[in-house]
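Shall we go through a protein fold together, starting from nothing but its sequence? Label the sequence line and the structure token line clearly, so we can match residues to local backbone shapes. Would you write everything just below, so we can both look at the same thing?
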Amino acid sequence: MKYKILILILVTPLLLSAQAFRGYSNEFLTIGVDAAGLGMSKSVVASSNDVNSIYWNPAGLVGIKDYQGSLMHASYFAGIANYNHASFALPLNKESAIGISIIRFGVDDIQLGITAAGSIIHYLDDTEHNNLSHISNLQRIFPDSYVWMDKFTMKNLELFNSNSSNGFNLSETIDDSITSMGSRKLKNWIAFPLVEKKEIKKRQDIVYSIIEDNEISGILDLNLNNISDIERLMSKIATYKISPRELIYLKNSLKSVHEIKQSLSGLNGTLKSYGKSIPHANSTVNDISKALKEDSPVSILKGDFINDNVSKELDSLRDIRSSGKEYLNLILERETEKTKIPSLKISFNNVFGYYIEVRNTHKDKVPEDWIRKQTLVNAERYITQELKEYEEKIINADEKIKDLELKLFLKLLDKLQDSL
């Protein structure tokens, strides 16, 4: 399943000094992030008035003033599969190993674009985002395929922001998307209007086919309403910041995506082709379904989210924990018969754990090996060696269950990395 989050990197020649920009034309790059979803996750504009200053705009994320640092981090894309901080120190040129790897991305002739991409990596590395394995490639955006608009044009057209306090922008006015991914895709389309008639016609045919088919419109509406933000969820997998419940959301979302794929693939024409282009995610759905309970908690700290039959060791520990009440009843029955005390009671508190409570009328029948821990008005509380050993067993089981569930959860995330 190879979905992409596209982070747009725009180097605007109009904002570069003539000397810095000499010999370059409009350059566009995207960093390809192997995650899930359709459309862009975030747009970041990188521009510069000086070759030694690259600033993020309009998001205002960070100002990077280390041009050489950006160049060094651009070398990240040389060995994308072998992430190594030491490789950042290598020079960026076509004769180096860096240059050879850049060539395979088809971007070796746009150094400013590569530098902008390197700046992203520089920023992530500088802010200690150490797990960047989901950033897998550079992809060139050819300006001739889109209508070029600078930020001033976008502002005047009020595409994304209104020029008046009570006004509306185009994006908000026409955006009736069901999913967050659809909303981001629409913004992407607005920012990059198509030029080629064939591509425009293809997009119109898809929209027209959906509008004309009430049945497929209903199917899409139903399933899209069940889809969470797949892009963001897959990104969280890549950075190991996803919760068990979010993985359940992802699984259910991918099931809905599969329903959409099946529905479109059964049609004719443009929608059938589009349906076939949607990637399969069966392995991801199966892996999550097998590993996690449907009612998994928001936090892994709450535990009890791994399914039964995933780990024999986990099942055994759970049996120890769940059989506690039955085991305590056996102890109570045995001690009652041995001591001839009819009103024995086994309870638990956080001060000294499990204890046996004996009423004062029967305290003379208490065995010598019982240890008195607390005296009440009408009763006394005792512990036994057997109860202490059992308590330790239960406590150890709980701790081991938590540790083992965490290991199994991380193992699942490791496996899902291959599906990004």
